[in-house]
Amino acid sequence: MALCPECATEIVVDEDLEEGQRLECPECDAKLEVVSTNPTELLAVTETDDEEETT
């Protein structure tokens, strides 16, 4: 279980979740990245973050 940093919704995550993996909040549709797996912590990803990875 993890909390969305944008809306605080509890998100059920897989046990085999890996750092760097991306997912989306089912409540607010925020794009999230796993920054820690023990405990599970999520960070909101901005469009700027996405652009930096593709350039």
The main pleated sheet reads as: 3 strands, antiparallel
The strand order across the widest sheet is 3-4-5
Please, what is the average pLDDT?
Answer: 89
- Gyration radius (Cα, Å) is 11 Å
Shape: globular
Structural domain count: 1
CATH architecture: Single Sheet
Query: How helix-rich are the residues, as a percent range?
Result: 10-25%
* Number of H/I helices: 1
Stretches where pLDDT falls below 50 for ≥5 residues? none
CATH names the topology as: Rubrerythrin, domain 2
Overall SS class: alpha+beta
The count of DSSP E runs of length 2 or more, i.e. the number of strands, is: 5
Question: Can you give a write-up of this model?
Answer:
- The chain is an alpha+beta fold and 55 residues long.
- The protein has a single domain, classed as Rubrerythrin, domain 2.
- The termini are far apart.
- The strands form two sheets. A three-stranded antiparallel beta sheet has the order 3-4-5, with no helix packed on it. A two-stranded antiparallel ribbon has the order 1-2.
- A hairpin with a 6-residue loop joins strand 3 and strand 4.
Features:
55 residues, alpha+beta, Rubrerythrin, domain 2, 3-stranded antiparallel β-sheet, two-stranded antiparallel sheet, 35% strand, globular
Task: Give me a quick take on this structure.
This protein has one helix at residues 47-54, and strands at residues 2-3, 10-11, 22-24, 31-37, 40-44. The chain has 55 residues and is α+β, with helices and mostly antiparallel strands.
Task: Detail the topology: elements first, then pairings.
Blueprint: E1 2-3, E2 10-11, E3 22-24, E4 31-37, E5 40-44, H1 47-54
Antiparallel strand pairs: 1-2, 3-4, 4-5
